[in-house]
Specification:
alpha/beta, binds nicotinamide-adenine-dinucleotide, 6-stranded parallel sheet, Dihydrodipicolinate Reductase, domain 2
């Protein structure tokens, strides 16, 4: 069986691969979703779960044993209990889904312990954390990725295939956004109490969540593999949305209706790359609105527009300067990963769950790499590039939109690195 056949059989569960031993650290909302996703994948032994809260960790252990495995060991009760997980010898991989400030410290120690490391978004909050992660990765050689699930979306991977086959010509420009009202359920709970994420709205003004928008863009534009971010400039609107939400929902005397929030409602960042491409990135998470990513990618021959689910390609689209539907292109340029995921053996249920199946694909590829001791589908350099938009945008906003130089986590190797994302398949 060659690499491609093996991967397809693993993704679609048509063969029985060797078992991979996994631990999940942080079993709140996302960690539990990742655990359930991992339990749907073939040949996974969840050997440990860990959460500060004993209740959350025990609930996760019960989910794993109910799924037919043995009961995982439970680590909880202190904010350093996770260190015990990393000491386990019979452990191949760890998924980290704790609050943001824990991501970098936990990932550094997981790499030092030699475990395949998957970390929820963003993997780092500051430049210092980014460099510490990079240095640990270089020193230990332990594979580590950020679990940026939107890079694995079915439509985004078909667009990647179209770009690589030259349909849009040479790439010029992208627009992307994370437009997701999280004030009424994530930064705060339904009763208006602050959750841990809300603290960041009080103390930072930045694009706080740039990775979902940028995930597919990095591979579409060959960032860190032939091109690199050069400068970033960001502007932030005033902060009105959080106050108005609390006023509307809880009355003008609620303390959060009066508090001054540092975080502006909409942050617009503009990246210029070394090779002259431009990218507009929007943070938009505290005004009432439906979910939207607004991906648009444009080249010298045409463009893809995600909200319209449409393309226009000069010389191919039937009507001059008129959109045509994306759906037939989705079929024609289906990525090999998704061909495998759509096999009946992959389990149709899993495609409906976990962000339309993108989570299943991402987690299966992560587990497959850990079991084969091969490269992860997304590398640390790209993971850091996406996350470093947080401190870069904060710096630029503080300088009234001045362009700031963007750190090069490839250490100059972007010139010679070959595109890798989605190619190993
Ligand atoms: N990729 C996605 O689509 C997606 C979706 C939602 C959230 N996320 C990310 O997932 C992460 C977790 O978010 P969430 O919504 O699940 O938060 P959450 O608050 O529901 O879960 C976090 C869990 O971590 C635990 N925890 C805190 N400190 C810990 C420590 N030191 N050791 C062990 N456990 C600890 C908490 O008790 C809690 O159970 C965040 O980084 C978030 O950005 C990603």
């Amino acid at each position: 069986m060659d690499r491609r056949e093996f991967l397809i059989s693993t993704l679609s569960a048509s063969a029985e691969p060797p078992v991979v031993r996994l631990a999940v650290i942080g079993t709140g909302n996302r960690g539990t979703a990742l655990l359930r996703t991992a339990l749907r994948a073939p040949a996974v032994d969840v050997v440990a779960v860990c959460d500060l809260s004993e209740e959350a960790a025990s609930r996760a252990a019960a989910i794993a044993s109910d799924a037919g495995g043995r009961r995982p060991r439970v680590f909880s009760g202190s904010d350093s209990a996770w260190r015990g997980v990393l000491e386990l010898q019979q452990l191949d991989a760890v998924l980290i889904a704790t609050p943001w400030p824990w991501h970098a410290p936990m990932a550094v120690e997981a790499m030092r312990a030699g475990k395949y490391t998957g970390v929820e978004v963003p993997i780092a909050l500051t430049y210092e954390e980014c460099w510490r992660l990079l240095e640990t990765w270089e020193k230990t050689g332990t594979p580590c990725m950020m679990m940026e699930n939107w890079s694995f979306r079915r439509d985004n991977l078909a667009v990647l295939n179209m770009i690589r086959r030259g349909l849009f010509g040479r790439m010029v420009h992208c627009h992307c956004a994370h437009s997701h009202d999280c004030v009424d359920h994530w930064f705060f709970d339904r009763d208006g109490r602050m959750r841990w994420g809300g603290e960041f709205l009080a103390k930072r003004n930045a694009d706080q969540y740039p990775t979902h928008s940028l995930g597919p863009v990095l591979s579409w534009l060959d960032i860190n593999c032939g091109d690199a971010f050069d400068t970033l400039s960001s502007q932030s609107s005033a902060s009105l949305g959080i106050n108005e939400y609390f006023r509307r929902r809880f009355g003008p005397d609620h303390p959060f209706a009066r508090q001054q929030w540092k975080q502006g409602d909409i942050v617009t960042s503009l990246v210029r790359t070394k090779m002259g491409k431009t990218i507009v990135i929007n943070y938009d998470m505290q005004l009432p609105r439906p979910y939207d990513n607004r991906w648009m990618v444009q080249g010298t021959l045409g463009l893809y527009d995600e909200p319209r689910s449409a393309v226009y390609i000069a010389g191919r689209s039937p009507k001059y300067h008129q959109w045509e539907p994306f759906a037939p292109y989705q079929e024609e340029f289906e990525h090999a990963w998704w061909k495998a995921m759509r096999q009946p053996q992959a389990g149709a249920d899993s495609l409906a769950a976990g962000h339309g199946g993108a989570d299943d694909l991402e987690v299966r590829l992560f587990l497959d790499a850990a079991r084969r001791k091969s490269a992860l589908p997304l590398d640390l350099i790209d993971s850091l590039t996406m996350s470093a938009v947080i401190p870069a945008s904060e710096e630029s906003i503080a300088k009234r939109g001045a362009p700031v130089p963007f750190p090069d986590f490839s250490r100059g190797r972007w010139r010679t690195r070959r595109p890798y994302f989605g190619i190993a398949s």
